[in-house]
């Protein structure tokens, strides 16, 4: 019932965005009505929503369009296949077993309600078809980026007096006709992302790399990505390909240490010796299973924290309520982190993207 409530609440939000007066009270009336109806019958779902969520005749055509789009049917009154597929998915709870029907490895188009469910599921527990849907949604992610002041200036109506332009104008016109001003320009705050490709991170590595691809596509000049395992490998150039599949193929050929161990302390030491994270947001995506010396990792994390603007650790296991950072790597890194966030689902990556936009 909770899943049905989430689905219909999302439908009500869609209606409100289209201009239909589907407020909280009307949504609650819909849920009460569905409690007495057969939700596998698309006709009953359609009419229950139409009678409870619509307030005026003008709402009816909008309702029909939203119902068809949200539940995937071409006609609102004939959306049996889409509604049945949604309710069957709701009935198949995570951990109860695989979905019925053959899985040919291709992803069927996701209805809005199904997409909402997939957003919160652990990507390690998805079928190939479901994972493909999540990856398609990740490819559409457009991450904003927090801005920082640069050293460059631009003309402005207010701000610091621009003496040179003011004097040049005065010499050209013979008098000081107008005071000129300037202000600092802004630019995206850079992000340095380290993606753990060791064996323990194998269920999440591809999805994390697709998230990295979305970041690079959104801000190509302000994003650097490295794979970490037993070696530090720059992969930003490979991720600049427009097509995610092509980018991932290039990355797979570039990374030499897939599914090995993790020596993050040594790799951070190499990074800090060769590159810089000054002023950047450093994001480490790893489960913290450090094969190297945890003391070395702690030392390098302290150096990274002093250099970077913020340090965010993304751990897939953080998405579970009973998670405790008990591994040696996590214990060594924890004192030097600004944030420890989940990285197990599409919703978690969306929240991380928002965090990068407002850091």
From TrEMBL:
Record's protein name: VWFA domain-containing protein
InterPro entries: UCP010256, Uncharacterised_CoxE, vWFA_dom_sf
Region (Disordered): 91-113
Pfam families: VWA_CoxE (PF05762)
